[in-house]
Amino acid sequence: MLNEAEVSAPLRSGAEAGVDLPLQRMPRRFRGLSGQLLWLTVIFVMFAEVLIFVPSISVMRMTWLRDRLDTAAAAGIVIDGLQPAELPRAVQDDTLLATGTKVLALRKDGTSRLLAAIDVPPQVDDQYDLAAETALGSMHHALDTLLFGGGRVMRVFGPIGETDMIIELVMTDDALRKAMIGFSKLMFGISLLISVLTALFIYLAINRMMIGPIRRLTHGMQVFSERPEDPARIFRSGRAKGELAVAGRHLAAMQTELQRTLKQQKNLADLGLAVSKINHDMRNILASAQLMSDRLVDVDDPMVRSFAPKLLRTIDRAVGYTNEVLAYGQASEAAPRRRLLQLALLCQDVRDMLALDPEGGIEFIDQVAHDLEVDADSEQLFRVIHNLSRNAVQALVQADPPEDGGARRIQLSAQRVGSVVSIIIDDNGPGMPRKARENLFTAFRGAARSGGTGLGLAIARELVLAHGGTIALVEKPGPGTQFRIEIPDRPVSLENYRVRA
Does the predicted TM-score (pTM) go above 0.70? Predict the structure, then answer.
């Protein structure tokens, strides 16, 4: 028997689970998910800018070198046109200073001629043919100059326009590297500004579209977990659209269903406590009634002798029910004690237990063959058929007379097909309501009549499943409700079959 502590323990543990969890504070904006997105956006944009920077610095280097070649080519053509006169030394120095070179040469008609020279270096470190420069080669040379250049002497040459003349320059890479460093600083500043602005815009958009709704969802779950029984703490999803709005509506529906379940569990716990108290006193009363009914067997009255065995069986069942009344919701039913029994006798006991008044207008039709045997637990199968038949009687009592003018009736039939016995409980009442159909076999929700609990169908289903069978509501063309129960025989081991054979 359950005591008060055992009945209410599941409910208390569920409530304590919500109370013991403290309401955790949300992380700050720049430390939470939005802050991580902000910094990741900055990093990713800067990484993208680095990928753009390499070809950009390569193009800047090629442009700078071509500008120097074009300037030197213009000066070289002028100098070459003054032949055979020779430029004064001061003019040569001014020309080289203007082009930023140390040596200026012109290759024409297969011959190379030195046009001007000053401070000729002893060796050349790098040579670049701008006409044959590839994209990858140009990027490699640009990074090499930017990172490791400075003080190197380089020889640069390339064609002059569409002619076959080639201009050659010898210069140091100091000016080029200085220009590349300035360009890099400018690119870094622009990239940083772009990444910060992009990250800020993404941060604001993500906060509005995602982080804000996610924070509302999280806050709604935390607030509900504190007091799940409070209807005011159910999440309000609003009329927003999108995936998070759908998630919010699902969360609200789940919290509503959870709140309804908690309420049902509390009602069940209170019911279990009340029944446990009533059960204690009821068992004592039935035990006294059982002792007194045993004496009826000794009475000489034929009427009493005919009713005494049925009365004893009824009281015995009531005593058994008091011992098992709390089985549902506390533990599973006991395993069926199966044996072959005559189904007709069991149905006759159901009819006697219903005690239908002949003047009540409800007819009980028993069409079960007397030689039909079923492999089942007699008490459990009795409870199944009795629960379904009692539900049918209660539905017929509240229903109007049939439209065809016939009697209100309950009909029991059964047949064996191979190793399966099929039992049909049929009535011509008003039928199952829609709500009862949707919650069929669900305790406290599958009641077919006002004031019902739905426990009868739930218990019947549990007992049938314990036998390895099935129970189902059958659709029928006419009015009424029809249930079909199928009970298969126990599997017979090969050794027992051989012994029996």
Answer: no
